[in-house]
Amino acid sequence: MVLKKNVSEQNKSNQSVPQHIAIIMDGNGRWAQARGKKRVMGHKAGMERAREMAEVCGELGVKYLTLFAFSSENWNRPKDEVSFLMELFATSLNNESKKLNKNNVKLTIVGDKDGFDSKLRKAIDKAEALTANNNGLYLQIAANYGGRWDIVQAAQALAVKGREITEQALQSELVTADGSEPDLLIRTGGEQRISNFLLWQAAYSELYFSDRLWPDFDGDALKGAIADFNQRQRRFGKTGEQVASESH
Length: 248
Fold this sequence. Notes:
It is a single chain. This protein is α/β, with parallel strands linked by helices and 248 residues long. It is 45% helix and 14% strand. The longest helix has 24 residues, at 79-102. The radius of gyration is 18 Å and the shape is globular. It starts with 8 loop residues before the first helix and ends with a helix.
């Protein structure tokens, strides 16, 4: 993966770039089946697309990119597909971490890592340690992640510490506590739900649903989603008039 150093045309326009984009990468299996291929080939194509998304986000000046790679519910998929996904994940970590480090990308895996075998946990630890001091794009891969699990584990952490459960305290224990909340949450593949992804963090995210299957969601599609984002007024509970007056 090569992150381009030039400022994009989008940054030169009056459009603002979301500081945090989260993506539910849906449609890999259907993409492969539509081409007469095994579902696992769609996951390989999806991995290539994820690499492009990181490149484009780095070029545009996005600070945080969170990709939903494997949910806590995905263990229920066919065993051979799950095994392939785990192997692909480990291989990709080993192959991509040096490139990410070279391009100043900080990689973090968010989710219940205890659910992975020792080989994959070692690959995760190695990739995170290698990129820990980078301050460019902050790339979060949500793997064995569920929004309900995240909230529960945060509450349990507060209970163990004997801390009062407040919004601020709970948020500090979420696995994404080091990053900002998503400005824009994208889901590909034609479905219009968030499927237990960042339930707490996405409370005020702008939602964008695309009919494109994930391997077909390219850089231009991402820029289209950002353009749509820029047409919206984010009010956070205020009136439109209040927001308009504050922007002047």
